[in-house]
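Lab manual, section 2.4: Encoding a predicted structure.

Procedure: take the sequence of the chain (75 residues), apply the prediction step described in section 2.3, and record the output as structure tokens. A sample record is shown.
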Amino acid sequence: MTTTSPLAGDTFFPVGTGTVIPAADLVPWAVLAVLIATVFLYFVGAEQGAFAIFDGMYVHEYVHDGRHLLGFPCH
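Recorded output:
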């Protein structure tokens, strides 16, 4: 008795027909991703410390759990 896979010879996932995205098209998205990550890292890691931009403890309390999750000490 032979068994065959229902996916054998399936053309739903073609192999080797992908398109290449030029690096020039990726650069603006990479710069945007780095900028967003930097702003996120600032708010989680440094806001309400020595480099506070906003008054009060609102930002600190909002990102408090994320700060500990990422390993930043705050108290």
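Check your result against the sample. The first helix runs from residue 23 to 45.
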